[in-house]
Amino acid sequence: MKKILTSILTLGVLTSYAQNPAPAKPQERAIALTGATIHVGNGQIIQNGVVVFDKGVITAIGDGSTPTAGAEVISASGKHVYPGFISPAATVGLQEIGAVKATVDKQEIGDLNPNVRALIAYNTDSEIIPTIRNNGVLLTQAMPQGGTVSGSSSVMMADGWNWEDAVLKKDDGLWLNWPGYFAREFNYDDFSLTVRKNSKRTEAISALQATFSDAKAYAALSNPMPMNLKLEAMRGLFSGKQNLYIRADYGKDIIEAVTFAKALGIPKVVVVGGEEANRVATFLKENNVPVILSQLHRLPNREDEDVDLPYRMPGILQKAGVLVGLSYADEWWRTRNLAFLAGTAAGFGIPDKEEALKLITLNNAKIMGIDNAVGTLEKGKQATLFVSAGDALDMRTNVVEQVFIQGRKVNLDDRHKRLYKTYKDKYEQK
């Protein structure tokens, strides 16, 4: 009996050690970070700056003369303070281990699922979430996948007991996979990519035309009876309350998809992916369509394109007047490296690192309609920020030391750190 009890207790200790840290408690008193280089997120830098926040809201920000009376003063001298990075178009919290089906909840069966909500599938206990906030990613957009109309996304904070605690903005937009002229097939046996003609394109577009036309007519009714859950989920597209996120990469597909949405009177359209967005930059600017680029660390689409074109894409679009954000798309395990995409952009066409910082802070916030609350460090906005030992866009100096989400101080333990300690201890043994 004693051995059994010992085994149970040992298992309990090991299990608790492997668990994520508990979500942070609400901010109890005002906090002032002093002496830091503050990166506001709008291109401005404050040297030897001070940021004060209370009850989760920034109450003051400025130079060293900013009053801190009554606040707990935390010296950040020689360090850098940033607004929390924002990861759009992500599946963090929706899948854990790609090869284990039970941990993947990012899509539903069927082609037209506007009523599906990624929000309620978001898993705050995911071990990936602590790893992204340890690189400064404090907000993520839970994005559904699959089918032609995947469902709605929501903007989530990287801390919370459950999705109700973590959500910042519910159902911010609907996701459409545009049926383009070409379809890609990836062969996992030899890791080759094949591009072929999309034989189902005409059928898919006809179904979209019918669904969106019905949704537009339904949205014109103030009190439809009986309620249609699928069409009800699309109502916000026509009132401007929701974005229509369109996944499209090829230039011709982008033009066709945006034209389709605009013809239906959908005011807020966002292109996601946009691997050939540079070819239609003028069109995007004229139609006021932002672009969320997928990860930049890839090869170009065409053999005759410059090998560094993906790196230069944000600068090309920005120069054309297009609002640009960055994401790691469905590569959820790499989302923690979002900051380094911005760092790459700063070396290939973006004028400086403060402009590059916007790609993962203010620009993403504007695109998702949350810039009134986050995206920059300004008085009245939420205190969702972090302290880094150095330049957070450089992997050599991105060492996140403190994180605050809505003023709550977050525990920075994660699986990566635990494994590092485990094997460091092992190989240091004499």
From TrEMBL:
Signal peptide start and end residues: 1-18
Domain Amidohydrolase-related: 253-410
Domain of life where this protein originates: Bacteria
Alphabetical keyword list: Signal
InterPro entries the record matches: Amidohydro-rel, Metal-dep_hydrolase_composite, Metal_Hydrolase, Metallo-dep_Hydrolase
Protein name: Amidohydrolase family protein
